[in-house]
Fold this protein.
Amino acid sequence: MQDCVEQLKAFKASQEFFVGIDSDGCVFDTMEIKHKECFCPQFINCMGLQPVSKYARETWEFVNLYSKTRGWNRFKALIQALDLLAVRPEVKAREVKIPRMQGLRDWMERETKLGNPALAEAVERTGDADLKCALEWSTDVNAAVERIVRNVPPFPLVKESLRKMRAQADSIVVSQTPVEALVREWREHGLDGLVCFIAGQELGTKSEHLAFAAKGKYSPRKVLMVGDAPGDLKAAKENEALFYPINPGDEGASWQRLHDEALERFLTGSYEGTYEASLITQFRRYLPEKAPWQA
């Protein structure tokens, strides 16, 4: 994957504008099926959470679908879900020991390319039991995604919007999904030819993707990140780029607005300022910080 990182760093501008686009939950309506049918069952199985499966499921879905941590890297989300689950009164009452996964925490402190290749290397080098467990979980998730997730088309007007972008902007996929799954899904629906590059979790964080591909190659005011999660907004702002939100639960209207007006505003220099700020303010209302059981 190091070669892919170098390819992303060597990316050359061919247009005046640049657009980074998230995939799961943004281009494809895959968040629900992936997390409910693939991630969460493996979370319960690999972490030994069968005695508190109801609460594990609620916690996993809150972290990954219905809160401000939506769209996090899978390993960060795993730790967040375990931490939230560990302090739930219902879990404490059952005296169920929730894994701390300290080895995974330590690895995440020193590694930015939080994907299976880097994790497998760390397992080979250290033999750490927590890292082995995390790799087993992540591998099982990938197998479940490949087996279960299919025939999920892009949201309406995605393809048309990508075609409009291509006429005046270089665009790449910026995602924390594994590259293999991204390529498979974008090819399945004939979208891979509408972007210049597909960057996944193995190539670093979303912020790093934007920095590698766009920093110093485009004016910051001519770089746009399109995403459905606070992490996408964070990546944009860390790179002084603009942000367009695909609002969770209101994706169709969000793509309609991007296609009909927002993209044109970006390309004509009238996006930044009041217009972008109003969209971000609206976006922030969609995802809470606290879970229902914390209220």
